[in-house]
Each structure stands twice: as structure tokens, then as C-alpha cells.
Description:
Helices cover 42% and strands 4% of the residues. The protein is mainly α. A two-stranded antiparallel ribbon has the order 1-2. Strands 3-4 form a two-stranded antiparallel sheet. The longest helix has 21 residues, at 155-175.
Amino acid sequence: MGCRHHTSNGRRCRRPRPRRCLRKGCGHIYTPQRWNQRYCQNPECRRLVRRWQAAQRQARRRQDEAVKARHAEAQRTRRRRLAISPQPPKDPEVAAPRGHAANIFWPFPLCQRPGCHESPPKLGRNQAKYCCRACRQAVDRVLDRERKWLKRDTFQGRQARTREYRAAAARRCGQQGHSANANPSRPPLP
């Protein structure tokens, strides 16, 4: 039920609850060390998250027109060099893929959920951000939790939390059925 000790200013400290790793395919439940920790600290999971982040950066970079022009010029230069200096033909089964065949990476754009390498559907003019409903809900859940955590120590956050707790208490009282808080003017049901 949270931490039992108090901070120096007399308020209770806030500890994050155990949560599920955001990376698609992981699903481990872990206790975060910080409020904004989204992933478990499994080394393999962290490696895959960094790999996905690098793919996202590369995909955004490749959309830039200047980068596309530099890449096209580099490919033209490479093809000219190969035409000038003929090399002995390599066995095609052994030769490493070059050009577009070497880029067996993920389709662009990628889903915005970490670890998901699927392409989101193109819906009319709008490009979706997530490949499926589950990915969208997982990311929305994390962003909502972080938004609430940051707002919690503000005046508005404390007021909203007080209203939430009162509403929850009222719901609990209403669900208890025939308790002492029930309306005494109504006769009890047989």
C-alpha cells in the first residue's frame, strides 16, 4: 500500500506501483525506480528498445529532402566508381546484398509503440500512428499515467483527486446496499 514513511515536509512519499513494460512483446511486470520509467530493466528489453528508437530516428531522417539528395548523390558516385574499376564477378549466393536489397529493415513509417516494427495503416489522407488498437491503447495508458503523476502535486491536481475520492466513496456507499447510510424513509425489502 505505498511507502509508510513521510518526507521531510511531513507529506507521504509517492512510490510508483508495479507496472507492465511498454515494449511490444515484453509484457514483464516490474516495479519502477522512477515515476517516468516505461520499460523493465531487462538488458535484452533495453537493447531492443534502443534498436527500435534508432530505427525511428533513421526513418525520420530519411524523410528529409536534403538527406535523400545526399544519399542519391552518394549512390551515383558509388556506381561510377564501380563502372571505372571492374572487379571479378562474385558468386551471387555468397555476395552480400547492396543498395536497396541491403535495407531489409522495417517498413516506413513505423508504429509509434516501442518495439513494434509493423507499419500503421494508411487511412485516406491521414497516416495512422499505430498499427492496431492495442498499441494505441498501451501508449495512451502510459501517457495518461505520466500526465496524472505530474499533475498530482499541483493545486488543481489535489482538488481533482479530492473530487475523485469523494465520488469513489459515494459509489462505494451506494453499492453497499442496506447499510446504516441507506435512506431510512424507505422500508427494507423482504
